[in-house]
Automatic annotation (TrEMBL):
Residues 171-195 are annotated as: Disordered. This is SCO2322 family protein. The keyword Ion transport does not apply. InterPro entries: GPS-CTERM, SCO2322-like. It comes from Streptomyces ehimensis. Residues 1-30 form the signal peptide. The chain crosses the membrane at residues 199-217. It comes from the Bacteria. Keywords: Membrane, Signal, Transmembrane, Transmembrane helix.
């Protein structure tokens, strides 16, 4: 292999590795609304399903599991499920049943740093066994184990256990243009796309390629001289 060719191969490999590292480190672009989603699971156990009622109206049976997940999502079809298992026995194993009341396992997933508001860090996920009256709602169960709660003027749940400190269902990511139709949710759930390589990155790759070609030309010129 000639010196010129060796130099060209070395520059090409360096360019490829550098570009791959930058592209791999590029953050995923998320758009939608930042909020607490509400989930439930049957008393007999099973997977999470998005609740069709709000926490204030849903009255789970003794032995049920409810979950709350903080994340950025476009709608219920795009919402991220709680990462904790919907396992009543594991959460409420040490809580005996009582007459006139019921036990509800509450699973709290505060989400990831990528979904957190600026300047805030999500607490660790946790679960607790709530004891409420026989007619208690999921909101009652949540209040029993995760105060302080924060609601807005429309009774939208904004914060659980004080997280997040501010904000409530705000739009993030895309700019909310007047009259713009929301993007359709992706089939299959909560995959997040990205914006692809930036113009600056593409320009940098092109510049390195030009420098590599120039180096090869200079080497050949010296050999001819």
């Amino acid at each position: 292999m000639t010196a010129a060719r060796a130099l060209f191969v070395s520059l090409s490999v360096s360019l490829f590795v550098g570009a791959a590292a930058v592209l791999g480190a590029a953050p995923a672009h998320a758009d939608g609304y930042r909020y607490w989603s509400f989930w439930q699971a049957p008393a007999a156990g099973g997977s999470w399903t998005y609740a069709t009622q709000g926490p204030a109206t849903l009255r789970p049976a003794d032995g049920s599991v409810v979950g709350f997940r903080f994340a950025v999502s476009k709608d219920s079809a795009d919402a991220a499920r709680p990462r904790g298992a919907a396992d009543f026995a594991a959460v409420c194993a040490g809580t005996p049943a009582e007459d006139g009341g019921k036990r509800v396992a509450v699973v709290l997933d505060f989400g990831t740093p990528a979904d957190a508001p600026a300047g805030e860090t999500p607490p660790a996920a946790r679960s607790a066994c709530a004891k409420v009256g026989a007619d208690g709602s999921a909101a009652d169960a949540l209040a029993a184990v995760a105060k302080p709660l924060r609601y807005d003027s429309n009774a939208l749940l904004c914060a659980i256990a004080g997280y997040p400190r501010t904000g409530c269902g705000e739009k993030v990511g895309e700019k909310a243009d007047a009259g713009k139709k929301p993007a359709e949710p992706k089939a299959g759930g909560n995959d997040k796309g990205d914006d692809g390589p930036s113009v600056g990155l593409i320009g940098g790759i092109a510049a390195v390629a030009v420098l590599g070609a120039a180096a090869v030309w200079q080497t050949r010129r010296r050999r001819r001289g």
